[in-house]
Amino acid sequence: MADQDFKYVIQDLTNIYLGARGTYEEILEDENVPHKLKEVIARIILTDTTPENHVFYMTPDSASFKAYKKMKARFKMSVWEPADGKKRKKAGYVNREYPVEEIVASKELHGKKDTTVVEEVHISKLGLGAVVV
After folding, report:
1. SS3 breakdown of the chain: % helix, strand, coil, rounded to 5?
2. Beta strands in the chain (DSSP E)
3. What is the 8-class DSSP label of residue 27?
4. Cα(116)–Cα(78) distance, rounded to whole angstroms?
5. Which residues fall within 8 angstroms of residue 10, CB to CB, at 6 or more apart?
6. Chain centroid to CA 87: how far?
7. Residue 96 — φ and ψ, nearest 5°?
8. 69: helix, coil or strand?
9. C-alpha angle 9/1/45, rounded to 5°?
10. What is the reported pLDDT for 88?
11. What is the structure's pLDDT at 83?
12. How far, in Å, CA of 64 to CA of 100, rounded?
């Protein structure tokens, strides 16, 4: 993969899409990131890691989890699924979006974090507006 894969910011009318491999510092420096999201990152969320790593270390009590939850964040992930002989004939990656609450609560996803590729974070603009900084 190229150095810039999964390092982007895209917006549409209702969502903000962040590539999960860019550090929070890089996100803060990007001119395409809305000011309110920059404030949330600077004041609430850690700034010395990436969303890809951060999502697996959040706890239900952490301020960053509460902010992501309020922003209705969903993480697009590719999770390695072994062959089971029934549904899947071959082992491979399965793409799916997970809400932040499901990731933090799932012991199964935490166990697979070394073989999981977090690709993107979807943040609701309506949810972002509900966050008080």
Report:
1. 40, 25, 40
2. 9-11, 15-19, 74-81, 92-99, 117-124
3. H
4. 6
5. 16, 17, 32
6. 28
7. -160, 155
8. helix
9. 40
10. 58
11. 80
12. 11
**Amino acid type, 42:** A
Q: What is the pTM of this model?
A: 0.89
Q: Give the integer Cα–Cα distance in Å for 108 and 50.
A: 21
**Six-digit token string for 16:** 């903000």
**What does each of the 133 residues of the chain score in pLDDT, given as a tens digit?**
555 778 999 999 999 999 999 999 999 999 999 999 999 999 999 778 999 999 999 999 999 999 999 999 999 999 988 887 766 578 889 999 999 999 999 999 999 999 999 999 999 999 999 999 8
Residues, the chain, total?
133
DSSP character at residue 100: H
Query: Whose structure tokens read 């974070």?
Result: 121
- Between CA 97 and CA 77 the distance in angstroms is 6
Q: What is the pLDDT of residue 96?
A: 94
Task: Single out the residue of 4, 1, 116 nearest to residue 56, CA to CA.
Answer: 116
Nearest to 68 by CA among 7, 128, 8, 6: 128
